[in-house]
Design a protein that fits this description.
With 101 residues, this protein is mainly alpha-helical. It has a domain of 57 residues. It is 61% helix and 0% strand. α2 crosses α3.
């Protein structure tokens, strides 16, 4: 067996990767192309664990949950209501359940 040069191996692997076709069941999307800015936030291990549990409870990645919460809060502040979606939903649930009791 002859030894191939690294350039030859890389060229072959590159060509194979370029010609690879994904199975039809694979859905390729890039949902964050419209959001090019990344924000870093430092959290304690406990804070991160709490966020991770909350994200798992909603079946969302942690970063998506943080974005949803942050944008919801911004919307509430901009509208002057001060109430987030979760707070408004809690008020609605309380009112509905009080009426049905």
């Amino acid at each position: 067996m002859t030894k191939k040069k690294i350039d030859e191996v890389l060229a072959e692997e590159g060509a194979a990767a370029e010609s690879y076709e994904l199975p039809e069941v694979v859905d390729v999307n890039r949902p964050n192309l419209g959001r090019p800015t990344v924000v870093s936030v430092r959290l304690s291990a406990d804070e991160h664990a709490r966020l991770q549990r909350a994200a798992e409870g909603t079946n969302l990645p942690v970063s998506t949950l943080i974005r949803v919460w942050a944008l919801d809060r911004l919307r509430a502040e901009e509208q002057g209501s001060g109430a987030t979606f979760a707070e408004r939903l809690a008020c609605l649930e309380k009112a509905v359940f009080q009426r049905s009791a």
